[in-house]
Design a protein that fits this description.
Blueprint: H1 3-27, E1 30-38, H2 47-52, H3 63-72, H4 74-79, E2 82-90, H5 94-106, E3 111-115, H6 118-127, E4 134-137, E5 154-156, H7 161-175, E6 179-184, H8 188-203, E7 207-213, H9 228-231, E8 239-242, E9 263-265, E10 269-272, H10 283-294, H11 300-318, H12 325-330, E11 336-337, E12 343-344, E13 357-361, E14 367-372
Helix pairs in contact: 3-10, 3-11, 5-6, 7-8
Length: 407
């Protein structure tokens, strides 16, 4: 055999081995489906409400956040031979959601992003507590989901009400704005958030100089209950803290107070998981990718869906067996980058994602006054645990395999 022919033979063999290698990689490629569970009639996404763009509230459904996470992880997923798809799961009620999720679980789907209201999410996670699916809360801040209604299969990516209230209280303490006038409603939807605010005020030794109830009403006899100037009269506070889950009353509080005072809570300065004007740690690139994909700014729930998807991909790439994912997500060795400048991780006792919280103002395109936790607020283990219920304070004490609420 001539040298030339021998060289060609070697080339052909190398080419054949390359093809076999590619075929082998294709053969071991894995598929991962992430379900996105949502209610088509969710009032949080009604067009009239979205048009008003109330501070701290969703600007649209968060599914696009998950899409962006997949797109920016394409190279990493390809290298790991992992094919990931999103599957919409539209549900009308909890019973339907349970049935559809269990049906998908039979087909190998184990991960679900939940874009549901808090009460529905609590009921659903309880109904699925004996299954091996993992649920990720991306849009419900309700404290009860992390306390008395906590579930072993439910992870929380959006900050809870206590985390956001503590972030605001730290900001006020740092600024020495110690005297607070609280305006809240008697609506059931505001009860949990108001309780979190009162607890934060007490926790950080702020002084509650007034605690008043407002009411929006068309009844002429009740108009005074919605008059901001009257509600804020007679209280010489450093700041007015308004609680309004709906946002309708809160938007009219700034610049209408009896005395010239800053407004915080659900208007003015607002605690948020994400603000599109954040300009550090790669955040502008993320915000631009999201805007390009959705045509709007990235809001807190969008970031939560993005972060939840990134967390799923992180453990799925390293551990092919989905049965290992809950343990991996709870591990102190898990490293998650949320573009906030610090390492993020899930708390083992309630499976809430530790994270900094922005104090933002000006709504869409507004500014950031600070990021909690602030300097001077110390914790023996992790400063992020100064936000929300610490392990000793939490009503939820999760074990390695199941949840347990303090009685």
């Amino acid at each position: 055999m001539t040298e030339r022919n021998h060289g060609c033979t070697v080339c052909l063999r190398l080419f054949a081995f390359t093809l076999l290698g590619i075929a082998g990689l294709t053969a071991v490629a894995r598929d991962l489906t992430i379900g996105v569970v949502y209610a088509p009639d969710d009032v949080r996404y009604e067009s009239k409400r979205l048009e008003k763009s109330y501070p701290g509230q969703p600007l649209g459904r968060p599914r696009t956040g998950a899409e962006v996470a997949l797109a920016e992880s394409e190279f990493q997923l390809s290298s790991a031979s992992l094919r990931v798809t999103l599957r919409d799961v539209a549900v009308d009620d909890v019973a339907t959601a349970r049935t559809q999720i269990l049906a998908l679980a039979q087909k190998g789907v184990r991960h679900f992003l939940l874009d549901l209201a808090g009460p529905d999410m609590a009921e659903l996670s309880k109904a699925l507590q004996t299954s091996d699916v993992l649920l990720f809360n991306v849009s419900a801040p309700d404290d009860t989901l992390r306390r008395t209604s906590c579930a072993a299969n439910l992870f929380h990516v959006l900050p809870d009400e206590s985390m956001m209230a503590d972030a605001m209280a730290q900001f006020l303490t740092a600024r020495k704005w110690n005297r607070v006038l609280l305006l809240s409603s008697s609506e059931p939807a505001d009860a949990s958030r108001t309780a979190a605010v009162r607890n934060a005020i007490k926790r950080y030794a702020l002084k509650l100089v007034g605690d008043k109830t407002y009411k929006l009403s068309n009844d002429p006899r009740e108009r005074e209950l919605g008059n901001v100037a009257l509600l804020t009269a007679g209280s010489d506070a450093d700041v007015v803290w308004v609680v309004d889950t709906e946002g309708e009353f809160a938007r009219d509080v700034p610049y209408r107070t009896n005395l010239a005072r800053p407004v915080v809570g659900n208007a003015g300065l607002v605690a948020e998981a994400w603000q599109a004007s954040w300009e550090r740690y790669g955040a502008p690139q993320l915000s631009r990718r999201f805007r390009k994909a959705s045509g709007r700014p990235m809001a807190s729930t969008d970031w939560a869906a993005w972060m939840a998807t990134k967390a799923i991909l992180e453990v799925a790439i390293k551990w092919p067996d989905a049965r290992e994912h809950r343990r991996a997500l709870r591990s102190p060795d898990l490293v998650l980058d949320g573009f906030k400048g610090v390492r993020l991780s899930f708390r083992p006792w309630d499976q809430q994602l530790r994270q900094p919280v922005f104090l933002a103002h000006g709504g869409i395109g507004g500014g950031i006054a600070g990021m909690a936790p602030f300097d001077g607020f110390l914790h023996p283990i992790n400063a992020l645990d100064t936000l929300g219920a610490d392990q000793k304070e939490s009503a939820c004490q999760m074990s390695g395999s199941a949840a347990g609420a303090k009685k």
